[in-house]
Amino acid sequence: MRLTVLFAILLAGAPLAFGGAAEGKDLFAKRCKACHGPEGQGNPGMAKMLKVTFVHLGSKEVQSKSDADLKKIITEGTGKMKPVTGLSAAQVSDVIAFVRTLKP
Ligand code: HEC
What we know:
The chain is mainly alpha-helical.
């Protein structure tokens, strides 16, 4: 009986895990893409304007950061990146889930 319940929870949780990155992709397109590009490679026009070199978000350098580090970057900003405001904690997690799918 207990196993059945556990199984049901696992099954219910699986689509949610996918939902995170899918939802995050949407949020990324709205809140990050203008600067970081659709695949996290960086928008060259924006790089020129902000006088920065974007590190690919799929690079080892970024992927080696913890979720907590990424959360901090998103909500508090870093260097020339201003904090991204108006995202709920769940939305920040979703965006991070999407960033984890990026490959250089
Ligand atoms: C207005 C432009 C802009 C937006 C919008 C933006 N960023 Fe950034 N981001 C930057 C810039 C510029 C840097 C480099 C900061 C520096 O080093 O000075 C950066 C750096 C980062 C880094 C650290 C990369 C490194 O150098 O290690 C991460 C991770 C990141 N951004 C994620 C995000 C995510 C996720 C979003 C959307 C929720 C987002 N950014 C939205 C401009 C932006």
